[in-house]
Amino acid sequence: MYLSTITISLRPSILDVQGKAVELGIHTLGLSAVSNVRIGKSIHMNVEASSEDEAKRITEEACKKLLANTVMEDFSFTVKKV
Amino acid sequence: MYLSTITISLRPSILDVQGKAVELGIHTLGLSAVSNVRIGKSIHMNVEASSEDEAKRITEEACKKLLANTVMEDFSFTVKKV
Questions:
Q1: Measuring CA to CA, how many Å separate B72 from each of A61, B8, B9, B13, B69?
Q2: What chain A residue is nearest to B50 in terms of C-alpha separation?
Q3: Which CATH number fits the domain that encloses residue A75?
Q4: Residue span of the structural domain in which B63 resides
Q5: pTM of the entire structure?
Q6: Site from A8, A16, A35, A42 to mutate, B interface, most B CB atoms within 10 angstroms
């Protein structure tokens, strides 16, 4: 079995309003050193596969078809045998 | 300047209903090899600091005070000079 760790983030050209709101909150806490906050998703899942290549293929298919909106988001992932 | 990459995930003992819903969706796509989907947040932010230790301190303070709900969530982060 493999553990896939996927990170999905908004493309850099897309305004991240959630990140902007969080940045404002962080500044209100007195942490003015923080800037350019961007918020994405982190997804962990188990993949039952006979090889690492197959696990990668399944993970990529799940990202493209369901997890990421490829118009607005980029995704990257790592696959680790567990 | 440093780039902090933070991952926030629900504690393992907490039911992840969002993950369960996504798992169902993935199975509906025909990818039955996927199980135990858990969804968290991935946050990137720039931190202006004079040393890596200071950047880590600021990042940890932001996580504890604002970004993570430490009752239900765990967080981890890496800090990289950019």
A1: 30, 10, 9, 9, 6
A2: A33
A3: 3.30.1280.10
A4: 2-81
A5: 0.90
A6: A42
